[in-house]
Amino acid sequence: MNKFWGIFVFALSFVSSVYAASLAVLTEDDMISAIKKEFAEEGVDTPMELELFGGKTSYSFENVQKLKVMVSHLKYDEEQNKFSATAEIFADGVAKDKTILNGRYYLLQNVWVPAEDIEKGTVLTEDMLKTISVRENRIKSSHVTELEKLVGSEVKKTMKAGKMFTDRDIGQVILIKKGKIVTAVYKAKGLQITTKAEALEDGAAGQMIGMTNLKSGKKFQARVTGAETVEIQE
């Protein structure tokens, strides 16, 4: 009995393998790839994501060696990101079916984001960042996505890996903190005068900040020129 069942299971497995080998399948991913190619033919070769919500999106045929889908009559609405297209299915070169596909398309853009969690106060370097593809309609005017604008900036709050930066999340590196005692320099006609002063606010390179002269108590404005110096402006 055991030998009989063993032969039966083997035979069933063999039949299943033969059946699977003779079954050709066209998936939704195949449909999407064909539509993307048609978009490229129309001059829209920007990376994109597609969502299908109308039409037949998968096919399977027995005893077929090759399935192919050809897309035509592509129409798309740039304002609503909707599209429609005709997909014709060929099995071994013979037309088998035709369907109208409808959906939405989303153009993608590469943006720079944290490669891992970044602590507040960290000065960004390129190795802390990575690129990901994001739908363009999810990128707001407040997002900062360019590498050159991020590197060298200071993180103002803890950032999670993969999250896009906004202009509130980063800022210039603070060289002088409020309350710090620095050297204030005044230059005029070859004359240079220095004095000690206290910063009344934080300041990054090139920023004007309020200062108090430690000797006279007089308040004045000065430009941050380094971590230990400011330059008094006339």
Provide the gyration radius in Å: 33 Å
Structural class: alpha+beta
Q: What is the global morphology? A: rod-shaped
Integer tally of domains: 3
The H/E string reads HEHEEEEEEEHEEEEEEEEEE
Q: Identify low-pLDDT runs.
A: 4-20
Layout: helices, strands, pairs:
Layout: H1 2-21, E1 23-26, H2 28-41, E2 48-54, E3 59-62, E4 67-77, E5 82-91, E6 94-114, E7 129-135, E8 143-144, H3 147-150, E9 154-155, E10 165-166, E11 170-171, E12 174-176, E13 181-188, E14 191-199, E15 203-204, E16 208-213, E17 219-224, E18 229-232
Parallel strand pairs: 13-18
Antiparallel strand pairs: 1-3, 2-6, 4-5, 5-6, 6-7, 8-10, 9-11, 12-15, 13-14, 14-16, 16-17, 17-18
Question: What characteristics describe this protein?
Answer:
SH3 type barrels, five-stranded antiparallel β-sheet, five-stranded mixed beta barrel, 3 helices, 234 residues, alpha+beta, 3 domains, Type Iii Antifreeze Protein Isoform Hplc 12
Could you explain how this protein is built, in words?
- The protein has 234 residues and is an alpha+beta fold.
- It has three domains: 14-107; 108-171, Antifreeze-like/N-acetylneuraminic acid synthase C-terminal domain (Type Iii Antifreeze Protein Isoform Hplc 12); 174-232, SH3 type barrels.
- Helix content is 16%, strand content 47%.
- The chain has three helices and 18 strands.
- Strands 2, 4, 5, 6 and 7 form a five-stranded antiparallel beta sheet that branches. Strands 13-14-16-17-18 form a five-stranded mixed β-barrel. It has a two-stranded antiparallel ribbon with strand order 1-3.
- A hairpin with a 4-residue loop joins β17 (219-224) and β18.
- The longest helix has 20 residues, at 2-21.
- The protein is rod-shaped and about 95 Å long.
- The N and C termini lie far apart (106 Å).
- Mean pLDDT is 90; it is low at 4-20.
